[in-house]
Amino acid sequence: MSHHIVAVKNLRHVYPDGTEALRDVSFRIHHGESVAIIGANGAGKSTLLLHLNGYLAPTSGEIQIGDFPLNKGTLPQIRRTVGMVFQDPDDQLFMPTVYDDVAFGPLNLGLSGGDLDRCVIEALERVGARHLVEKAPYHLSGGEKRRVAVATVLSMSPDILVLDEPTNGLDPYSRRQLIALLKEFRHTRIFTSHDLDMVLDLCERTIVLKDGEVRADGPTLEIFQDRELLEECRLEKPLSLQGCPVCGTRR
């Protein structure tokens, strides 16, 4: 299924102030993969994700989503293919009610009436948020906002799901619920996260960025067992892999 493939080649991005956020980044993600993109603050993670559905344009380099090279002419198709969940749900929820937020994308694709209602309800049911349909987004908890933000993306039936720091700001219970939800999805999934235990739980492959460059790309467990790599990239081993401070055994 080529429409699930994400191919990035020699991607470079320089912000207007001269900051070089990405330097010659290349990788290829295949159908059904769950891939984490990790790194210290400022490594270029969020900048990279914002390129995958055209929110940012490359300074140079190429991006291909499925059969389409990313350019101005293909943006509508690519944004239907790649569903982006932002780090802050408040950047995604802007309508008077949850229903309106989830309906916004399908409505702009031409859905209406009963078809639109079914699309909204199905997306909310998939994230366990059907009961929030008439709520105002600003009355929701952090975990509820995150679920609704995911529903706004699922309502567009994307082939590729991209999430920027999906557990950021969540309490432990909401975090566990979100991880359980994400495990159910069979999309091609791409995450950025500082929550490395979530990465270990959800992603079989991990790409490490350092100063805008790909420093490593491989099986997640191997990445987290490379002590020199973690130290170089200012990353900590997931808590679940750290030894007990008393007996040294793994938790």
UniProtKB/TrEMBL annotation:
Q: Which PROSITE patterns does the UniProt entry name for this protein?
A: ABC_TRANSPORTER_1, ABC_TRANSPORTER_2
A Gene Ontology molecular function term of the record: ATPase-coupled transmembrane transporter activity
**Protein's membrane topology:** Peripheral membrane protein
Subcellular location(s) of the protein: Cell membrane
Described function: Part of an ABC transporter complex. Responsible for energy coupling to the transport system.
**UniProt cross-references to SUPFAM superfamilies, sorted A to Z:** P-loop containing nucleoside triphosphate hydrolases (SSF52540)
Q: Name one GO biological process term.
A: cobalt ion transport
State the name under which the record lists this protein. Answer: ABC transporter ATP-binding protein
Record's InterPro entries?
A: AAA+_ATPase, ABC_transporter-like_ATP-bd, ABC_transporter-like_CS, ABC_transpr_CbiO/EcfA_su, Co_trans_ATP-bd, ECF_ABC_transporter_ATP-bd, P-loop_NTPase
Q: Which GO terms describe its cellular component?
A: ATP-binding cassette (ABC) transporter complex
Identify the main location.
membrane
ATP-binding keyword on record: yes
Classify the source by domain of life. Answer: Bacteria
This protein's species is Geomonas silvestris
Q: Which residues form the ABC transporter domain?
A: 6-236
The UniProt entry, under Pfam families, shows: ABC_tran
Keywords attached to this Swiss-Prot or TrEMBL record, sorted alphabetically, are:
ATP-binding, Cell membrane, Membrane, Nucleotide-binding, Translocase, Transport
Q: Which NCBIfam families match?
A: cbiO
